[in-house]
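User: Show me an example of a complex going from sequences to structure tokens.

Assistant: Sure. Here are the input components:
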Amino acid sequence: AQKVTQAQTEISVVEKEDVTLDCVYETRDTTYYLFWYKQPPSGELVFLIRRNSFDEQNEISGRYSWNFQKSTSSFNFTITASQVVDSAVYFCALSEARSSNTGKLIFGQGTTLQVKP
Amino acid sequence: GAVVSQHPSWVICKSGTSVKIECRSLDFQATTMFWYRQFPKQSLMLMATSNEGSKATYEQGVEKDKFLINHASLTLSTLTVTSAHPEDSSFYICSARRSGGGELFFGEGSRLTVL
């Protein structure tokens, strides 16, 4: 069975703090994709990153960084020097190889991040 | 700009009426589109896979007669909530991938409120 778990329901930080959002996944496939999406209050889903299971290199994009650890089945997301505009719900998602060509995603429960000024 | 567009972005209707939501891929063809449902403060749950020119594939527990999906062209899929009831109130989001693979794009979502 495929499953994505985001254990942190809500996180509240003060602006400029670093914050890490956890994501743990379960899959039997050896080939799969992991995603992070941001959902601001307006509701649309904003794509942040896609990582395939064969690429364990950490990635950095501006204030965002991702740590992929296959050994622990985790794909954590860190925001450095958080800003108020980072306040949103963040979803981690999994797409298995057999559905990767069709785009069926399994989403985690989401983590609501509140960045206070 | 958006490459997948949904319409309407929000709709309020009376209980018992049917509501149609459109999902369009704006600059690419999509043989497959996906419909998700999101309850307030909850995650997105896949409802069905919309296949151009054929029947939709529904996830377990989703009533196909309740949520009618039509994918009549390579750029348009529609979701019709038939005989809507207050429990159908939700945020409905579609996604599409270019035919042949590539990045997955999500629509802006459609918020349905059934009174």
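The lines above are the inputs; the final block is the predicted structure for all two components together. Chain A has a mean pLDDT of 91.
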